[in-house]
Write a structure and sequence with these properties.
alpha+beta, Arc Repressor Mutant, subunit A, Immunoglobulin-like, 3 domains, five-stranded mixed sheet
Length: about 325
């Protein structure tokens, strides 16, 4: 109980300080406009006998973030073309690709990254021109939207920012903390929107559609499924919630989201993440595994495993036994 009260107190102080910084920053500087567009196109085309396709997990990207991309080259019979020379280009000088020339492997695949630095929402068209001896050239295209949000912090005392950062770290490992932190930072941008504009944004529409199809999903699950950043997800969730499209419920350390019209079910027991379920499976199958064993089996960091083991131990889901220097974990029998 004391830990929960301390956590709530830290969250409250963090919110107050960050809100103060945001208000001062906005009164002294203008925030860059957050222009919204609705359609995002991903396309490829081929000339002659080479088919070139660019693909990526990202069609929307935050300014200065990096999007890994793949270019695939095939011949007229749809077979991969090895050792094809692919030149990659972005017409807009604000966008960069690296490397800008790749050689395809045995599967006809080459890898590169894209990044852009913008001060407003901007669309970029990436082109890939492939060629090889005895083949005509082929060209592929990919369209990506890069957006920007920034709250300037000029003339704000360094001590205020430092205290806020420290308090933010205290709650950074909880869904409720992440949601609250990024919501407060991005709250001033929300006031620019009218309700009829809320679902116009492509990413926000994706988030709303996902919640409609998967009511009760928690914050981390939504972020992982849609491959968006904490800042992006928190901003759009808060906008949807404040304009009356969705509602949320806190469930322990989780933040669950539902369509507005849906009745929130009364949950019993503890909501486990997909990773925590996988950890429990490892413990069941290997009686008494160590933290290091679990991390290697799931191919995740030991810090991630340690954090989840502590949460499940605190909730009484698992127990641990120390044998010499080793700590082994077991399912808590009920």
């Amino acid at each position: 109980m004391m830990k929960r009260k301390m956590l709530r107190f830290c969250v409250l102080i963090c919110m107050i300080l960050l809100l103060t910084i945001s208000v001062i920053a906005i009164t002294e500087n203008k925030v860059s406009a957050y222009h919204e567009n609705t359609s995002i196109m991903v396309s490829s085309r081929s000339n002659g006998t080479l088919s070139v396709k660019i693909s990526s997990d990202y069609t929307v990207l935050e300014s200065e973030s990096v999007a890994p991309m793949t270019v695939t080259v095939k011949d007229r019979y749809n077979f991969p073309v090895k050792n094809a020379l692919v030149n990659i280009d972005v017409k807009n000088a604000a966008g960069k690709v690296f490397p800008d020339t790749v050689i395809t492997n045995i599967d006809g695949i080459g890898k590169f990254n894209f990044t852009a630095k913008v001060n407003r929402e901007t669309r970029f068209i990436i082109t890939a021109n492939a060629s090889k001896e005895d083949f005509t050239s082929g060209e592929g295209r990919f369209e990506i939207t890069v957006y920007f949000y920034h709250i300037p912090l000029s003339q704000i005392g360094a001590w205020s920012l430092g205290i806020s950062a420290i308090l933010a770290l205290i709650v950074a490992n909880t869904e409720v903390g992440k949601y609250s932190f990024f919501t407060i930072v991005l709250l001033p941008l929300y006031t620019r929107l009218r309700k009829e504009e809320v679902l116009d944004h492509f990413v926000r529409g994706q988030i709303y559609g996902y919640i409609m199809a998967n009511p009760g999903k928690h914050y981390t699950s939504i972020k992982d499924s849609l491959k968006v950043t904490n800042g992006t997800l928190s901003y759009h969730l808060r906008t949807l919630e404040m304009q009356g499209f969705i509602k949320s419920k806190r469930d322990g350390t989780y933040k669950l989201f539902y369509p507005l019209h849906m009745k929130i079910p009364q949950r019993q027991g503890i909501k486990l993440s997909d990773l925590q379920i996988n950890i429990l499976d490892i413990i069941r199958q290997n009686s008494g595994p160590t933290q290091n064993y679990i991390a290697k089996a799931l191919e995740v960091s030991q810090q991630t495993v340690s954090y989840n083991l502590k949460n499940m131990y605190r909730e009484g889901i698992i127990r641990k036994e120390q044998i010499g220097r080793l700590v082994k974990y077991y399912i808590q029998e009920t």
